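Minutes, methods subgroup
Present: GH (chair), OT, SY

1. OT presented the first of two proteins processed in the latest run. Sequence and structure tokens recorded below as shown on screen.
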Amino acid sequence: MGCLFLLVTILSPRLGLFLLWAFTNYVDRAFSGWFLPLLGLIFMPWTTLFYVLADVAPGPMHVAGWILVGIGVLVDVSAHAQAAARRRMATV
């Protein structure tokens, strides 16, 4: 089942995060409410997904988990920058 989740998540991080939210309690354990994960689902899906997966481990989050979250931030910022560049190229 893990390989199927990985394939779905690579194709669509929003769908992967939604599946985690719907079928596990990982998102509820990582966040105390529903509003912040919803914002993450809409605006920064990779960062939210990596935070949820890094927070699942028992105990406090270690350096490797924060590095994973940092990679998620970079991927999300890169996706937003690429979308903005494509919009600029389309108007020229």
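2. SY then presented the second protein from the same run.
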Amino acid sequence: MREVLLHGGLDEAFDRSVGFARRLAESFGARLHVLYTVEAPLGAGWTAEVGAERLPEVHQAMEGEARERLARYIPIEDQERLGIQIALRAGEPVPEIVRYVESHHIDLAILQANRENDRDLAHAHAMLDRCDCALLVLR
């Protein structure tokens, strides 16, 4: 196992998963990728509030926020030492995760799925159908 992916979110489940994913990747000597997915700006109607010319700026701000959030659990120095890759993709989570898994040759993808959240469970089931890598679903 050389490449491990953790799908990021902005909830407590993700916060708990970061340490687990880090320990798992370290135990295998694998690189940890943290992928955040956000709704596509054009589909979400963002352009009504933010002009299209500012979307790269918005993307950078979101990526910066994702890095800061991750730094609360894995200090920047450790992120650099461990070679942690952080990526932000705009679009529906499952297709974006699948594209990332395929393009980065991910061996294990880690997702969070809350029993009460039908969308999380649907994502986990879709990943089982669409991904060739191993899948770990954390509750």
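Chair's summary of item 2: The two ends are 22 Å apart (CA to CA).
Next meeting: continue with the remaining queue.
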